[in-house]
Design goal:
By secondary structure, the protein is an alpha/beta fold. 40% of the residues lie in helices and 17% in strands. The protein binds cobalamin.
């Protein structure tokens, strides 16, 4: 029988950003699926295992196990196949490094890369000597066919989401994630936070989003299956917060309400830090969310200008519904965080300034202002890939040229939006500010400089 080792590589990010440590759900799902089909599978998350190991290079920080440790893990496991996750473009060099190490341990090891980046650029990923196969899209079935002998670019039809086993969390050092306690929302007040995926994909096609070509249509798991998994997380791991990773949790209202009613009695907190589809919300749904344990809601507003939202971003959102929803959250005790994207060539300086003022006006507790980034897979990327270098695009750099605002000015402006908006909580809600920054620093034994780093 073939043996598979799945590795989540070390992680690189701007050294001004906060580190995170999440269970890598992609390889956790694949491991569960392979195991169900009788495959001998092991996993290694370099981020959790080497969380404190940091190296710095040109304004970027990489954290996670070093090369020697990864080499020893591969040697000890002695696998036939090594699969590595490459969730995003910025992680490509880390994924390749792990596969190079695998080949250096034993050149007969078959290597596989999967995740968002190789899915949208399969031929580029396959062009590296250390990569034997690339799995496009969701990787469960493709990985099984690679185990059964396929190679090269492998694609499978999306599976029925209710037939995929729960992620194999038992193969990961769950206690280490709880101990590090840096989930996607680093300000989470809870101690045992874990990730949960209740649906895959999104029915919309926002201009900047890189997963529009990834999952096909939106597919939600049955509410009962989500409730059963949530119960299992509470009973087996003592989880006190469910961190929903869905790209669009609220697509089907009846399913969401059934899930919320079903997890309410578990008495856990709930968050969806990637953001929910705002147009899918209403006051009643917010109340169900509050009742089920939501303590914060992320509003991906992107722009407060309806023309930019409609004609440039193609986001189905009527801006006038946002403010009353944010106010209702405040009334019922859910904190609000907003996402904005700055730097569309069609946006004026005034438009971006207006977004900053708008965030204050509607009373968001916190916000992230990100620079427009051409991530592979997005329509934006295809419009620009022949014109600019998209390789090192990241959300704090102005990669897309703006017709009237110089790059540095744009970067400085957006940086000041982040700093000033989040600092302004001090005057807007002083108690909230103290508990958010100083409370988190105390609870997590972090210095205040670390906790005030960028989101
Ligand atoms: C969790 C997450 C993070 C975590 C990552 C840490 C971790 N350990 O997971 C954190 C919070 C750090 C993060 C940060 C960012 N993220 Co993020 N993140 C996600 C998120 C919400 C969930 C990923 C996930 O677990 N999905 C669920 C699992 C089941 O799906 P999956 O990981 O895709 O895995 C499947 C397939 O990809 C494939 N697969 C995956 N690995 C492997 C391995 C093998 C061998 C095979 C065969 C297949 C395979 O099979 C899996 C099962 O079907 C996704 C959006 C999403 N919902 O997918 C964005 C996403 C991955 N992030 C994205 C982005 C842009 C970012 C940020 C740049 C933006 C930001 N401002 O936050 C930063 C990047 C920081 C940096 N320096 O690189 C983009 C990636 C775009 C791109 N092409 O590069 C995504 C797709 C969101 C989006 N729609 O645009 N993120």
């Amino acid at each position: 029988m073939k043996k598979v080792l799945l590795i989540f590589p070390p992680f690189t990010q701007p050294d001004t950003a906060k580190k995170r440590c999440l269970v890598p759900m992609g390889i956790a799902y694949i491991a569960g699926y392979l195991r169900k089909h009788g495959v001998d599978v092991e996993v290694y998350d370099s981020v959790v295992e080497g969380y404190e190991t940091e190296r710095y290079h040109k304004g970027m920080m990489t954290f996670g196990s070093n090369d020697d440790t990864i080499k020893n893990v591969i040697k000890k496991s002695n696998p036939d196949i090594v699969g590595v996750s490459c969730l995003m473009t910025q992680q490509k060099h880390n994924a390749l490094r792990v596969l190079n190490i695998a080949k250096s341990v034993n050149s007969h090891i078959k290597t596989v890369m999967g995740g968002c980046h190789p899915s949208v650029l399969p031929n580029e990923s396959l062009s590296y000597d250390s990569v034997d196969s690339v799995a496009i899209g969701e990787g469960e079935a493709s990985m099984l066919s690679i185990v059964n002998g396929k190679s090269g670019v492998v694609r499978s039809s999306p599976l029925d989401v209710d037939t995929i086993p729960f992620p194999a969390r038992d193969l990961f050092s769950m206690e280490k994630y709880f101990k590090i306690n840096m989930p996607e929302n680093p300000f989470s007040p809870n101690k045992r936070v874990t990730q949960l995926v209740t649906s895959r994909g999104c029915p919309f096609r926002c201009y900047f989003c890189s997963t529009v070509r990834f999952h096909g249509s939106w597919r939600g798991r049955k509410a009962q299956s989500v409730i059963d998994e949530s119960k299992h997380l509470v009973n087996s791991y003592g989880v006190d917060e469910l961190n929903i990773l869905d790209e669009n949790f609220v697509v089907k209202r009846s399913r969401v309400i059934e899930i919320l009613k079903g997890i309410k009695h578990l008495d856990v907190s709930v968050s969806n830090p990637g953001g929910v589809w705002i147009q899918g919300l209403d006051n009643e749904l917010l109340e169900y969310m509050k009742d089920a344990g939501f303590y914060q809601l992320v509003f991906p507003i992107e722009s407060s200008n309806p023309k930019i939202l409609k004609d440039v971003i193609h986001k189905p959102l009527e801006i006038e519904i946002v403010e009353p929803l944010v106010k209702h959250c405040r009334k019922i005790g859910i904190d609000t965080h907003g996402f904005f994207i700055c730097g569309f060539p069609q946006q004026t300086r005034e438009d971006m300034q207006n977004d900053f003022e708008y965030a204050k006006k509607i009373g968001l507790d916190s916000a992230s202002f990100n620079l427009l980034s051409p991530f592979p897979g997005s329509d934006l990327y295809y419009d620009y890939r022949d014109k600019i270098d998209t390789d090192d695009a990241n959300y704090i750099k102005a990669t897309i040229p703006h017709p009237t605002i110089p790059k540095e000015e744009l970067e400085d402006m957006v940086n000041s939006f982040n700093v000033n908006f989040n600092k302004s909580l001090k005057w807007r809600r002083p108690i909230k500010y103290i508990s958010k920054y100083y409370g988190t620093a105390l609870r997590k034994h972090l210095d205040i400089k670390t906790i005030t780093k960028r989101q």
